[in-house]
Amino acid sequence: MSRAGTLTRLERLDLLASRLKAQEPMTVAAIAEEFGLSRRTLFRDLAILRDRGLPIEADRGRGGGIRLHRTWGIGRLTLSYREAVELLVSVAVAERMEAPWLIANLAPIRRKLAASFSPALRDRIDGLAQRIRVGGAASPAVLQGFSRPEEKSAEALCRAFLEMRLLGFDYTDTEGSESRRRVEPHHLMLNYPVWYLVAWDTGRGAVRSFRLDRMRRAQVKPEEFRARPAAVFADAFAGIAAVAS
């Protein structure tokens, strides 16, 4: 009995798809012989796989090659929620930088990412770039005390920033004093490579700016907040004037 007779069509299609994804050199003749198929049946199976979304290329002739197009994986990328949030923030930063070789392509990328989020978050995603400021390079004095931000705190900040939820964290100020803060994360500002969070500090009832590398044990809170008027933060963007105390 031929191999084709021992496999159902679904099994054969799955096996053929697996062989294609392995990117092994294959020819029409070799695959037809291996599966015990006529060339007509093989091309019919390939057509079904194309309909399923596999971009299959086949050279003409009995000895022609069969392969997936080199970009076959594009569009099938799976991101975790954390990865999608961090990528959205990165796209928003690039949009604010207005890099000429990127700006033309960022809007469709943002829209495709936004499509994977709930409708409640999509309006916030569209306005994300407006909540990010990009300034000049950090001063030598700032760089002297700069350290790599805590990864989990950076992750929590990105999520709270996108979802507009309160954020709690431990903070060490310039004098070495430590405190627990609870804030509304309204804006991010980059003075490369130093990130600042410009927030409404609920405990002090005022705008405060925090360096991300000084934040520890950040946690996203369940409470949401509404955007405050831009005028509230005007002083904070004048050279990061409203410093954390």
Automatic annotation (TrEMBL):
Transmembrane regions listed in the UniProt entry: none
Lineage per the UniProt record: Bacteria, Pseudomonadati, Pseudomonadota, Alphaproteobacteria, Rhodobacterales
Keywords from the named record: Transcription, Transcription regulation
Domain HTH deoR-type: 9-67
Gene source species: Albidovulum sediminis
PROSITE patterns xref list: HTH_DEOR_2, WYL
Family annotation (SUPFAM superfamilies): Winged helix' DNA-binding domain
Protein name: WYL domain-containing protein
InterPro entries membership: CBASS_pafABC_assoc_protein, DeoR_HTH, HTH_11, WH-like_DNA-bd_sf, WH_DNA-bd_sf, WYL_dom
Domain of life: Bacteria
